Amino acid sequence: MLPRGKSAMISAMNEFLRLSARQAVADFRTAPRRARTFFQDECRAARAGTIGELRAAARRRTPQVIFDYLDGAAEDELTAGRNRCELQAVELLPRVLVDVSCIETSTSVLGRPVSLPLLGAPMGLTGLLHPGAEVALARALSEADSISVLAAMASCPIEEVTAAASQPHWFQMYIWRDRGLVEEMLQRARAAGVPVLMVTLDVPCSGNRDRDRRNGFSVPPRVTGRAIAGGLAHPRWSWGFVRHPRIGWGNLPADHGGSATALSTHTNRQFNPAATWDDLAWFRERWSGPLVVKGILHPGDARQAVRIGAQGIAVSNHGGRQLDGAPATIRALPAVADAVAGEAEVYLDGGIRRGADIVKALALGARACLAGRALGYGLAAAGEPGVRRAMQILHEELRTTLALAGCPSVHALNPSWVGQGPARATFVNPSHE
Predict the structure, then answer these.
(1) From 130, 169, 234, 318, the catalytic residue
(2) What is the number of other CB atoms lying within 10 angstroms of the CB of residue 42?
(3) pLDDT tens across 131-169, in order?
(4) Separation of alpha carbons 328 and 422, rounded Å
(5) Residue 203 lies in a domain
(6) Is the terminal CB of the chain with fewer CB neighbours within 10 Å at N or C?
(7) Which CA distances in Å does 122 have to 14, 126, 220, 316, 357?
């Protein structure tokens, strides 16, 4: 007869073996189904638990030149890094013994209810990331009960995105030289039922994006040995690109840009270095709906935009893709919010990767946030399911952060919920990871 200790050990081992055997049988039975679905976009998206994991998946799925177009920024990428580092440096001051059994994340933006204070920032040429492009973004944002902002330099035309989305989207425009072209695009936006116009102010000329220069990025892409090698190394991306190519700007008329090789150069020449506040007033006169301006970092500029008639101010440094050395948007946010308090809604654009980032921005004066790269990673990684997963991740993290902070509603957030403001932090260029 075995001693009691040995008998118990053998019994535990037998139970472990039985458990292992049951799991092995179950895994064997489901292996064919899992193998069939492993590479589907829905499963690829579901495997990501953070925006960082979606970024890693996007990097694996796309050629380097395409990933760097999405991920990169201007020059040494200091401003893009500051957006992240200084958001991370903001401390949250939690409350305890607060009933957080019911968390409220919904709010409204310019009178429209949204399920969470996060909108899709305008991004150009998303058709290079995935054939679904802005249509996929608009659908996913509509499903999440939020708002997408369609860029003037999008891959998909306004009308296609409007037809695909179940809810209205906003439209973003630049101050371009060709006023006839701009008026035509504004007319198309009005005809499509676009309720809000966003005018980007921080692009008098194109920024120096060293990653794109090193990669030889151009629109349309040049067919080189390196490009072919990158395509062969990423067959799923290449198959989608060949089947449904979106290599130009969907909102520009066919007669703009001349030859294919001149398209990128022609469009860059549209940016107007002579633009002044009078040009913003020109937009205000021609757009009867709400007007949002994007690219504001200085409180004086915010006040001037409100005087001209802007109802929304997007505190933005263009994701660090224009002026390298500009301050992080979370650093500029409080002063801008104070400058226009009660006169315009304020949004934070730049560096949003976590639900906690949204909490910090709202505590420091933002009505909502704009996310570009975070959703772009999802699109590049898994198409529309990837964008839906990115929104789901950020929404879940937002709920968790509010609960752990002891704040039952986004409407209760104010500066008392954050500690020391953002501090300068050491930044490592992500292109050197």
Answers:
(1) 318
(2) 15
(3) 999 999 999 999 999 999 999 999 999 999 999 988 899
(4) 9
(5) yes
(6) N
(7) 58, 10, 20, 12, 19
Sign of CA dihedral 337, 170, 252, 181: negative
14 falls within a domain: no
Question: Structurally, how many domains does the chain consist of?
Answer: 1
Q: Taken in order 247, 75, 336, 51, is the CA torsion positive or negative? A: positive
Band (431; pLDDT cuts 50, 70, 90): very low
165-224 tens-digit pLDDT: 888 999 999 999 999 999 999 999 999 999 999 999 999 998 999 999 999 887 767 777
Q: Hey, how many other C-beta atoms are within 10 angstroms of the C-beta on 117? A: 25
Is 298 noted as a catalytic residue in this protein?
A: no
Tell me the whole-structure pTM to 2 decimals. Answer: 0.88
Residue 346 sits in which domain range? 46-419
CATH code of the domain covering residue 396: 3.20.20.70
Whether 16 is covered by a domain: the verdict is no
pLDDT tens for each residue of 300-345: 999 999 999 999 999 999 999 999 999 999 999 999 999 999 899 9
Type of residue at 138: A
Q: Is residue 18 part of a domain?
A: no
Q: Which residues contact 313 (CB under 8 A, 6 or more apart)?
A: 292, 293, 296, 302, 305, 306, 336, 340, 344, 345, 346, 347
Is 234 in contact with 129 (CB distance < 8 Å)? no
